[in-house]
Amino acid sequence: PYEYHSHDEYEMALIESRAADFYGGEDIFRIVPGDVLIVERNVSHTFVSVPGGLPASQVVAQFGAEALTGFPVQTCLPTARLGVGAVVYSGKNCVSILRRFQEMLLAWRSTETPTEGMHIRAVFYEILFFLSDLRPKFTAHPSETTAIPARARDALSRVLNHLHRRLSENVA
Asked: Up-side HSE of residue 70: CA atoms within 13 Å toward CB?
C-alpha cells in the first residue's frame, strides 16, 4: 500500500492493472483498471491493493494550481465543480482518453520545452473537458482533516500509517 498522505497538488491517476481500494477523505471505494481518478489538493488519500492479489498499478500525474491559471477552476476541475475531495470515472467510459492520458504523461516525463509544455497543457485540458461530460462512478467527500494545517495533517498521516503497519504485522 501507499502511505496515507496529502499534498498541495491536484492528482490525476489512471488505474493500469488490478483492482485497489482507494481511501480518500471520508470514503473508501474499489477502483479497477481503466478508471480515472482525480483528487483535490490537500485531501488525505491512499491506494491499497485488494487482499490476496498482486499489487495494483497506476500512472499518476500531480499538478499545481498554476496548471489551471486562466481557466475557470469551478467548471473545469471535476472535484471543484462537484464540491468533493475525489472523483472516479468508470474505465468503460474513459477508453477514448486512455491514449491521450498516456501521451500526456510521456511528454510530461521528458524535458519540457515551451512547445512541449503547451502540448501537455492542451492534452490535460482536453481530458478535463472530456470528463466534464461524464457522470462520476464515485465521489469522495473531503474529511475534516482538509481544514487543519498541513503540519497537523502530516502528523495525523504518520500516526495512521504507523497503525496500518502495526496491524499488517499482526495479520501476517
From this structure: 4
Distance CA 36, CA 12 (A): 7
**Residue 30 grid coordinates:** 474499489
Give the three-class secondary structure for 74. Answer: helix
72-77 long-range Cβ contacts below 8 angstroms, 24+ apart? 75/132, 76/125, 76/128, 76/129, 76/132, 77/10, 77/38, 77/128
pTM for the full predicted model = 0.76
For the stretch 75-126, pLDDT in tens is: 778 888 888 989 999 877 777 777 777 777 777 666 566 666 777 778 888 8
Nearest-10 Cα torsion for 157, 163, 169, 172: -90
Grid cell, residue 93, equals: 467510459
**Three-class SS string for 108-148?**
HHCCCCHHHHHHHHHHHHHHHHHHHCCCCCEEECCCHHHHC
